């Protein structure tokens, strides 16, 4: 599968590209501001946040733990280890720390710009950061892992009224419930983790309820996070890893969502 399907109105509300690298030990908060000044005036919404924990997808031992997507925390932090820069339109966010670099696309007005466009934006922006580290005398950026997260939202009242209906939305994840007749389903949440064979990465899936910013409706949130190593038996390049994660997440999304839903998202002929 080489590209996104022709969906006019897909449910994706956020797409996050990430790269993890060996610690840049000389990086300081002053360098954050220095890098920010090199960007255009479009990037004018800075904030501090706590550092995200590093993640390593290892395959020489059983997997344990919980999946993690990329969190956005704009409140004050006692240890400002992560620098966030938002753009004027509030649909792009750069997240930078000593071991990670992320670019978020967040749905606002307009259509989803597609993976092929956004991955190019990420590569260009990360390339600027790598060039900056050389200019600033911070050393080489040694990449060790790629990461890609899709977040889809299915608002209550638009897609469903009762959690029991989630089986019809995501039949590939939620099967038919068989419980006592006097029981009514009140809440559902689940997580899954899959190896991208043969040991090239993992796809972590989580489905739970939540709320979108500026939307009071409860939504079923579907998060897919793919990540894996770069080098040492993993993907040869960062881009190869991101493409692998995109293929795994997109193929899975098309398999777990109902054909009826997919038909409703397609552009009119």
Helix content: 10-25%
- Rounded mean pLDDT is 89
Q: What's the main sheet like?
A: 9 strands, antiparallel
Rg calc: 20 Å
Strand content: 25-35%
Please count the helical segments: 5
| Helix/strand structural class | alpha+beta
The shape, in one word, is globular
Instruction: Please give the alpha-carbon distance between the first and last residues.
Output: 21 Å
How many beta-strand segments? 9
Number of domains: 1
Poorly predicted runs: 66-80
Keywords summarizing the entry:
single chain; 269 residues; alpha+beta; nine-stranded antiparallel sheet; 22% helix
Short description:
The chain has a nine-stranded antiparallel β-sheet with strand order 2-3-4-5-1-6-9-8-7, with helices on one face. 22% of the residues lie in helices and 29% in strands.
Give a verbal description of the structure.
- The protein has 269 residues and is of the alpha+beta class.
- The chain has one domain.
- It is built from 5 helices and 9 strands.
- It has helices at 29-37, 115-135, 166-169, 238-256, 259-265; strands at residues 12-21, 43-49, 82-87, 92-97, 100-106, 143-155, 190-196, 201-211, 218-229.
- The longest helix is centred in the middle third of the chain and has 21 residues, at 115-135.
């Amino acid at each position: 599968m080489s590209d996104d399907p022709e969906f006019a109105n897909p449910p994706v509300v956020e797409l996050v590209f990430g790269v993890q690298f060996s610690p840049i030990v000389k990086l300081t908060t002053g360098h954050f501001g220095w890098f920010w000044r090199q960007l255009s005036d479009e990037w004018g919404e800075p904030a501090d946040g706590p550092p995200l924990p590093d993640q390593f997808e290892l395959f020489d031992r059983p997997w344990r733990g919980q999946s993690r997507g990329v969190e956005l925390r704009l409140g004050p932090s006692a240890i400002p280890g992560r620098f966030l820069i938002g753009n004027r339109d509030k649909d792009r966010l750069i997240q930078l720390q000593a071991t990670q670099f992320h670019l978020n696309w967040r749905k606002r007005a307009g259509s989803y710009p597609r993976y092929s466009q956004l991955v190019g934006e990420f590569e260009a922006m990360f390339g600027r950061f790598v060039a900056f580290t050389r200019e600033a005398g911070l050393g080489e950026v040694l990449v060790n892992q790629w990461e890609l997260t899709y977040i889809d939202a299915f608002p209550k009242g638009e897609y469903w009224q009762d959690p029991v209906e989630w089986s019809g939305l995501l039949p590939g994840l939620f099967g038919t419930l068989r419980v006592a007749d006097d029981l009514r389903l009140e809440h559902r949440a689940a997580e899954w983790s899959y190896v991208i064979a043969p040991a090239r990465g993992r796809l972590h899936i989580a489905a739970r309820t939540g709320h979108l910013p500026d939307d009071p409706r409860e939504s079923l949130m579907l998060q897919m996070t793919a990540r894996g190593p770069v080098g040492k038996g993993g993907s040869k390049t960062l881009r190869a890893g991101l493409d692998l994660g995109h293929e795994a997440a997109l193929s899975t999304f098309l398999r777990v969502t109902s054909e009826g839903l997919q038909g409703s998202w397609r552009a009119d002929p």
